[in-house]
Amino acid sequence: MHGLYPFYLAASRWVLPALAVLVALFWVAYFRAARPPKRVIARFADSQGASYPVTVAEGFVGRGRRCDVALPDETVQKAHAVFYQKNGGWWIASRRGDVTVNDVPADGPVPLMDGDMLTLGRTALTFVCNDPEQEDISSFTPPTGALLLVLLTLFQAVMGGQLCLRYWTELPLMLPVCFGALIAGEWLYFLVGRWIPHFHMLMEIPVLYLTTLGLAVCACASPENLYKQLICALLGMAGYIGFTLLLRKESWCYALRFVVAGITLAVLLFTALFGTRIFGARNWLSIAGFSLQPSEFAKIAFVFVGACGLYVTTQKRLNRWFFLAFAAAVMGSLVLMVDFGAVAIFFVALVIILLMRLTDVRLVGALVAAAVVAGVLVTVLYPYVASRFGAWLHVWEVADAAGYQQTRTLIAAASGGLLGVGGGNGYLSGIAAAETDLVFGVVSEEWGGLIALGAALCFVALGVLARRLAENTRSAFYAIGVCAAAGMMLFQAALNLFGSTDLLPLTGVTMMFVSRGGTSLMAAFWLMAYFKAAEARPHGLETERRRYY
Amino acid sequence: MKHTAARSLALRLLILFFCLGLALYYGQLAVRGARFASYPTNRHVYADGRLVRAGAITDRNGVVLAHTQDGQRLFNENAEIRQATVHAVGDLEGYVSTGVHTAFWAELTGYDAVNGLYSGNGAGHNMQLTLDADLCVTAWRALGRRAGTVGVFNYNTGEILCMVSTPTFDPQLASADAGSQKGVYVNRLLSGSYAPGSVFKVVTALSVLQNLPDAQTRTFTCQRGVTIEDEWLSCLGNHGTVDLQTALVKSCNAAFAQFALAVGRENLTRTAQSVGFDRTLTMDGIACTQSHYEGIGARSIDFGWSGIGQYNDTVNPFQYMTFMGAIAGGGSCARPHLVAGTDSLPGKARLLANRGRVNMMRRDHAQVLGDMMRKAVTDHYGDWQFNGLELCAKTGTAEIGDRDTPHSWFVGFCRAESKPYAFVVVVENAGSGLGAASSIAARVLQAAPSAE
Ligand SMILES: [Zn+2]
User: Fold this and answer.
1) In chain B, what residues touch A416 (CB-CB under 8 Å)?
2) Of A56, A352, A494, the CB nearest to B8
3) ipTM
4) Structural domains of chain B in order of their starting residue, each with its CATH number
5) What residues of B are in contact with residue A58 (Cβ under 8 Å)?
6) How do residues B252-296 score in pLDDT, each as one tens digit?
7) Ligand 1 centroid, distance to B239 Cα (angstroms)
8) Residue pair A13/A419 in contact by the 8 Å Cβ criterion
């Protein structure tokens, strides 16, 4: 411990939450300012001279308020037909109502040419795609978020500084290296990224905030794993960039989906049968000295297959059953691993994906009902799950037995107050699984309730951002991908946060980016590729070859 | 993609529930945070389940009752002081829930919702009590091996000088080991609840003054008791024809039962409530057990008994001590409190919020009641025991079933300017109030320091 530490701590415990609050406020401001502009890439014109601009490469035409082309005609169905761009051309397919193209009834997808005449209900439309009323959007330059990154860097530096002084003798080199590398990595990313048109850091800021907290917790709770945590974070960033590039190629993804599904199932089954059991769940695989959790990577594949499987709005029957079968197999192998927290997370993603694509509410309802039955069955068949549920909502009565982890988390969170007692000065990090399952309590105790609240709000921010991206992205593939990824993260954060604080039963899942664990950190970064891919391709620019990344 | 995005309803709901959960969690932390943090496994302030990080507690003269030294919590080195003050000061393991260690846990340890238990804010905050440790020892010695309580407070300032409850234990040793004695962790002054016996007649007398125009001239007849609706209510003496004054001095059951009937159920209940019955009184924010009076709905004979402190009446000693203070103070008195001051800012706010006066009756009624209680001492109990105190008092002998010896009560106040003290003494199973309880009161009041 350095002699200046007490003074530095006294000041920095106020400065850090203040910086976190500033980051949050500026993030909200940037979020509002960075609403992407609409760009007209085609249009429909009716006989009265009304014009309906097309700003997406895949969308609905119909009477519904939410349709991308909303027609004021009672004889048109709410979601009458689907139009989309594919292989450089435009297509239309009827969905709920009849469509004719140049007086020929469209049966299945029909190519649309410039000047084609369409009828939907009583409305006659002309399709125009060669001379769209192009709006000039080059003058619109959304803020890149440089100020946000500066604030975040300050936050990281102050936090790292506090830890450096705290562990002046124990970790003289490790802490400056780790915080320095993280800061260097994020600035390199930013400086390269800002050459890309419309680049901004909205999604990256929450992720980097969480990663910083993860490093800080790891430094205090298990410094021997700090380098590993850092390397996994950097590998995660690299993988995230690569995966984003792949996701850009929608057709490649479509082609790869069976391969991805096959590999995922094979690895999961292998793990379920031959994996290592840690804390009750058999979900670890050891290969050549490295141990990893395949179920973490399965989350990425699950979203991939789910979004791909429903690639083009019209092709649905085969894809639906393929995806449902895949989902069932994935969740089956997770049950074999006795990893019920993961099953719940996958189930939430499944519901999000199905609801976004299918209007078949009955199927989703049936699935939810089945899930409830399955949940009851699990508590009957697996006594250790039942015992965890047994402590739920009255953990203080069994504070030293089944409620041990929850009560210790609450004690720690209360002891931290809003400002925290300082990194490394808490006691929760000493108990088992604290830096994974109870990490919210560790952050609350050492860094304070405000910074912990910031971590929780990061997941909310990602959820809100996902909805914005889904509205503006070019196709259903990206919309579904980003919403499913965000849903998984948010639900997993909820299980972690509310499980350890006794608002939900404790399921023992990690908090993405913050909990210690190489696999889950890498996988979390990879999931973010769904955000970047949805964001990097705004409003139907498929024919335009921009150099992103 | 508005159409598809609109169907991300599940994600929207998830965001909503997540935010609700966050609000619930932080709300719970704000409300119950101090209770979470005071769980005895919290190593920020506890070691081996005993509180270690907390400020010092001193009595009114600066005598250290508890303080932390070298990571150890030490009580006063005098075992008598430790035992006499343990219920006020509290133990380290939270057994004495109304003790300062537990009730002022946050102020002592320096916990607050913003800073938590951040150690840079020092080793907690100090606290000075209004207690006089020596007076507590005197009271504790006077109580001896009997269970009971002694409370004395200055009705002008509200300072509680003496607060002793027996049986007691030594907080320097493990609290759990004391558990074999019945009710050892209970502060009988704040949390006790006893049948009042004749001390309740002061309430009935007040109600008579408030409700009968001829209160001071009306007489009733006692013939070793009285018949109420064919049932016999016995009296300890044959008092003949008595007025209110004589009835109180001689503690005549028959007269008071008839006075109660003359006043009526509603009026007596209203008077009881106005002096603190069926209401939660607090001392520095610490809730006391309620006194209970139940006259409405009782049969006439039961209502008669209720007017002389039997039937279902129960009294909390702290409430009665406050009532005595109000009579002494001319109808109102400063609210009794235990903590004189603290250097904790939230603590200061809490003390401020719990100061003020309690108003219980009209000044002239208080004067008449006081005069009658004074006469009870001079004419009946014997003023020689209470030299120089100008004592006004009432005894009580609370029957608690046929087999057990009754509880002994002595309540009242001094009119002497140098000793503006109201007091309550309860000794369990000690027989007549005039005896056990009154002699304890005499010893304690004589030993009480003169007020400045
Ligand atoms: Zn009589």
Assistant:
1) 116-117
2) A352
3) 0.91
4) 197-447 (3.40.710.10)
5) 1
6) 999 999 999 999 999 999 999 999 999 999 999 999 999 999 988
7) 4
8) yes
